[in-house]
């Protein structure tokens, strides 16, 4: 599996793709330019406040449910075991089932290739029509 890009790299690439300078974008998301620079350069962790992450995503024009949306929120919590991506954390449906699903997978003690296979199976899963 390819190493995931760091949050700061993703943020900078998306900002630049939108043609926004650092200071302009910092003002747009109500953040000090120096703090934004530190985040983009990996000198500080991504924001932990979900409202800030949603504000940044909106300012970048990231569409909910798009691959960029998932990559952005996943990278924001990478390495933080106590957090879920904000979009998933606020999904009531997921709140009920995610702990059970994660515990079930953890109890299986799958190796990396088995986890990748499980992920691919879930991605291609299509529930039966009722």
List keywords for this structure.
single chain; 434 Repressor (Amino-terminal Domain); 130 residues; elongated; 63% helix; mainly alpha
How would you sum up this structure, described in words?
The chain contains eight helices and no strands. With 130 residues, the chain is mainly α. It is elongated and about 45 Å long. It starts with 6 loop residues before the first helix and ends in a 6-residue tail after the last helix.
What would you call the shape? Answer: elongated
How many separate structural domains?
2
What is the CATH class designation of the largest domain?
Answer: Mainly Alpha
- What count of helical segments does DSSP give? 8
CATH architecture of the largest domain: Orthogonal Bundle
Strand composition percent: under 5%
Could you please say which CATH topology of the largest domain applies here?
434 Repressor (Amino-terminal Domain)
Order of helices and strands: HHHHHHHH
Distance between the termini: 36 Å
Name of the CATH homologous superfamily of the largest domain: lambda repressor-like DNA-binding domains
Give the biggest beta sheet: none
Based on secondary structure, the structural category is mainly alpha
Query: Could you state the oligomeric state of the chains shown?
Result: single chain
Mean pLDDT: 87
- Percent range of helical residues: 55-70%
Which stretches of 5+ consecutive residues score pLDDT under 50? none
CA radius of gyration: 17 Å
Overall number of strands: 0
Short description:
With 130 residues, this protein is mostly helical. Helices cover 63% and strands 0% of the residues.
């Amino acid at each position: 599996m390819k190493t995931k890009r760091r949050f700061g790299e993703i943020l900078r690439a998306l900002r630049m793709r939108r043609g926004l300078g650092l200071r302009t974008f910092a003002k747009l998301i109500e953040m000090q330019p120096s703090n934004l620079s530190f985040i983009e350069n990996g000198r500080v962790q991504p924001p932990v406040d979900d409202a800030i992450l949603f504000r940044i995503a909106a300012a970048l024009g990231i569409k909910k449910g798009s691959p960029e949306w998932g990559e952005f929120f996943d990278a924001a919590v990478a390495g933080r075991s106590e957090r879920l991506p904000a979009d998933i954390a606020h999904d009531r449906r997921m709140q009920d089932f995610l702990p059970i699903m994660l515990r079930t997978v953890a109890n299986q003690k799958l190796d990396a290739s088995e986890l990748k296979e499980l992920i691919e199976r879930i991605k291609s899963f299509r529930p039966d029509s009722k």
